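The records we work with from here on pair a chain with its fold. These numbers are not coordinates but entries in a learned vocabulary of local backbone shapes. To see the layout at work, look at the sequence and tokens printed below.

. . .
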Amino acid sequence: MICLGLEKVGEHFLVPKHEIVPEEKVEELLKKFGSNADQFPQLLKDDPAVEEIGGKKGDLIKITRTSLTAGTSIYYRVVV
């Protein structure tokens, strides 16, 4: 893992918030987007942010990014 001088990768100001979507919410999101988990963009299981939150293969990850110009944007990725 790359050392950024922080205890956790998620504490760095350039790393957006990563959260594992609870199982009961996954089905709801899949219906909302009219897709299945295979159609979401992928995120590697050895990504430092995924490792930090305890993500495993098949988990759906919610990424919340903030920007001065765009406000808040939410992205979803599936761990492979």
Remarks:
- The CA atoms of residues 20 and 54 lie 8 Å apart.
- Helices lie at 23-33, 48-53.
- The domain at 9-79 is CATH 3.90.940.20 (Eukaryotic RPB6 RNA polymerase subunit).
